[in-house]
Specification:
The protein is of the alpha+beta class and 175 residues long. The chain is built from six helices and four strands, in the order βαβαββαααα.
Length: 175
Amino acid sequence: MSLNETPEESIYTVNFRKAWITPEYRRTNRVVGILREFAKRHMKTDDIKIDQYLNRYLWQRGKRNPPRKIRVRMTKDETDTVVVSLYEEFKERKSQTEVPDVKQEVETPEEQPTKKKKVAEAKEQVELEDSPKKEDKNATEIKSDEESKTEPELKTVEKPKKKSTRKKKSADQES
């Protein structure tokens, strides 16, 4: 491979049917082995590295229940090292870098006044809640009594001390 060439990339679907021949408690270990064998066979190198996101994906359902098949991207660099990674991950990254998802809301002239009215009403409600109400003291006392009736007070209850199961030594036994 010369310096001007780009690394080799291939996309494969790897079927893990052989993993179900092995005992249940070793299945995900076998899946990792099958993936390494597949990469060696198709990329023709012994230096295989599995991406951490792919590894997490393989192990996320535990040791006994790995995925049946998986779509992967294998990338071979200049030093003949193959990196195996999830295909979906690259698909998502590529779509995020190429086309930024920026949607601006376009308001029609009819919607603008209604939004302004809603904002003004919300501000008025906040001001009304924050401003002190001018009422006589008796009315506020009555309200506070009514509020205390509707909202039960939380009392802290102390737990009773546990009695020890040990026998206490009498004064005669201590000396």
